[in-house]
Design brief:
Layout (H helix, E strand, L loop, with lengths): L7 H5 L15 E8 L4 E8 L7 E7 L6 H8 L1 H8 L2 E6 L23 H16 L2 E11 L1 H12 L6 E5 L10 H10 L17 E6 L8 H18 L7 E9 L2 E9 L5 E8 L6 E2 L8 E2 L5 H14 L1
Parallel strand pairs: 3-4, 3-5, 5-6, 6-7, 7-10, 11-12
Antiparallel strand pairs: 1-2, 2-4, 8-9, 9-10
Helix pairs in contact: 4-5
């Protein structure tokens, strides 16, 4: 259960408070508390420096044992957002909602639109969009591990809100419905459930990163995420053009080899990208050692996600 008054933040009920972001001229990295009347969620928000019009918004969901500041440091997303002119929102899970600050991706109470954590994060996202100059057609969500799994849920339950999804070392929507089921899915992989009937909104594109030496979340879960989004895409199309071609490439970056599979629809648009980073464990690829659960080697997942998000948003 969520507790609206989970710590001292809620008693202050402060609006967003900005502070200069270290090393990024003119930018601000502040904090705030979102309260929807039932539940509360604290967050950090990065605003790039300079005069800008409506900007893209990237929602970043940390993994277990992390907080917003740690995740921002480890992914290096603020520096990239300064360069590209993006807002970055970091919702922060409460210890009252989970003892290890994990998003509850495996709990059925958090699997559906309008309920639980998906509704709370979506509400916070809309709040930021209302308070700041956000381009409503350029909003993406990404996360690591439990945060990656929750990002997948948000992309599938709120395709009208999020334009693209990034999942690093996460799992498919509905991979588990209990604590025991979560452990099993993490250890051995899970077959994702069939996608729901298509909504009026097209399935959003997804980019997935996973290390093939991940001992925490089995690598086959990345394929489950891809398959789930491809199935949803095919259901929405329901036509001859639903077929998706796959292109494979190999390479190396940052001292690690990788294999990338790109899934394109007949019109050329990218529906999904799957990156397998060889030799990498349960960590953000190409990350910064100042944050936890990072691997400084390998392709830079933050850069690739932004490239993918902007391409998807501009398509």
């Amino acid at each position: 259960m969520f507790n609206t008054f989970f710590d001292a933040w809620s008693s202050m009920a402060l609006p967003w408070a900005g502070a200069p972001a270290q090393g990024l001229s003119g930018s601000r990295f502040g904090h705030g508390l979102h309260d929807d009347g039932k539940h509360a969620l604290r967050y950090r928000l990065f605003i790039p420096g300079g005069e800008r019009g409506p900007m893209p918004l990237i929602v970043m969901l940390h993994g277990c044992g992390q907080d917003a500041a740690d995740f921002a440091a480890g992914t290096g997303m603020n520096a990239l957002a300064q360069e590209h002119g993006c807002l970055v929102l970091y919702p922060e899970q409460s210890c009252s909602a989970h003892c290890n600050k994990c998003w509850n991706w495996y709990d059925r109470a958090h699997h559906r639109r309008g309920e639980g954590e998906p509704a709370l994060i979506a509400g916070l996202t809309r709040h930021i969009m209302a308070e700041h100059a956000v381009d409503a057609g350029r909003v993406a969500v990404a996360g690591l591990s439990a945060g990656g799994a929750m990002a997948v849920i948000l992309g599938r339950t709120y395709p009208d809100l999020f334009s693209a999804v990034g999942c690093h070392s996460g799992l498919a929507h509905g991979s588990a419905g209990s604590d025991a089921g979560a452990l099993l899915a993490m250890r051995t992989g899970a077959s994702p459930p069939a996608p729901p009937a298509p909504s009026a909104h097209a399935a959003v594109p997804v980019i997935v990163f996973h290390g093939d030496a991940d001992a925490t979340v089995h690598r086959t879960n990345s394929r489950g995420v891809i398959r789930q989004f491809l199935d949803s895409h095919a259901l929405h199309r329901r036509a001859a053009d639903a077929g998706v071609a796959v292109e494979a490439e190999t390479g190396s970056s940052g001292g690690r080899a990788f294999t990338r599979h790109v899934h394109r629809e007949p019109t050329g648009g990218i529906v999904a990208e799957e990156w397998t980073v060889h030799g990498a464990g349960h960590a953000w690829s190409g990350g910064d050692a100042r944050g936890s659960y990072t691997d400084v080697r390998g392709p830079n997942a933050s850069q690739e996600m932004l490239r993918f998000f902007f391409g998807s948003m501009d398509a």
